[in-house]
Design goal:
With 198 residues, this protein is mostly helical. The protein has helices spanning 2-10, 16-28, 31-38, 42-47, 49-52, 62-78, 83-94, 116-119, 149-159, 178-181; strands at residues 122-131, 137-146. A two-stranded antiparallel ribbon has the order 1-2. Among the domains are: 14-79, Arc Repressor Mutant, subunit A (Orthogonal Bundle); 97-146, no CATH class. A hairpin with a 5-residue loop joins strand 1 (122-131) and strand 2. The radius of gyration is 24 Å and the shape is elongated. The longest helix has 17 residues, at 62-78. It starts with a helix and ends in a 17-residue tail after the last helix.
């Protein structure tokens, strides 16, 4: 009889706001904003939400964190997000050779002809066409923008622990398998134990 009471006590009662918080948190992984959208007051969202989504032993709503963890695993499986795949994408950005954007004559390649690893690093392209008085095209200016190589290299270096004193960014304290953790590692809103100093 006593064990039944104890197990019942451990079970947390779900509220509509709790369920909405889990759904909203999985949208952008911002605990405070998710709590506000879920209907919690601004004060509660600012002071409590980060604890609710963490794996802190002092979390008064561990059922929320457990549901978020399951949601993350479900998303990772659905979109085939693995540690290997994410690191490969980082490598494409970090080790990009800008020369591969051009052909042998120095002409910018069309996007559909870019090598896969080069196209992955392309973040933007502007095309400006100039016309003469007869409305005939006389000049085409193309500008490309690719991902920040230094930022990508920094992320890889931190992951490998190459910077003295840095911790691996994969420690998100959600008890997720390694293949799932990396998808959330670079999000500043990723839940961490509030007791741990950053």
């Amino acid at each position: 009889m006593g064990s039944r009471k104890k197990s019942a006590k451990k079970r947390k009662k779900w509220t509509d706001k709790d369920r909405r918080l889990v759904q909203e948190y999985l949208v952008d992984f911002n605990a405070e904003k998710a709590a506000k959208r879920a209907g919690y007051s601004q004060t509660t969202a600012k002071t409590q939400a980060y604890v609710w989504v963490s794996d802190s032993p002092n979390n008064p709503k561990p059922h929320i964190r457990a549901a978020i963890q399951k949601g993350m695993e479900r998303l990772a499986k659905k979109f085939e997000i693995t540690q290997e795949r994410v690191l490969k994408e980082y490598a494409k950005l970090a080790f990009l050779d800008p020369r591969k954007f051009y052909d042998e004559d120095g002409q910018l390649l069309p996007v559909h002809k870019l090598p896969e690893e080069v196209a992955a690093a392309l973040s933007g392209m502007d095309v400006t066409t100039s016309y003469d008085k007869n409305n005939d095209s006389v000049d085409v200016l193309k500008k490309i923008k690719f991902a920040d190589k230094k930022a990508a290299l920094d992320s890889l270096a931190k992951h490998l622990g190459m910077f003295k004193g840095d911790k691996t960014p994969l420690d998100v304290n959600l008890n997720l398998p390694p293949t799932v953790k990396v998808m959330f590692s670079n999000n500043p809103e990723c839940p961490k134990d509030p007791k741990k100093k950053s």
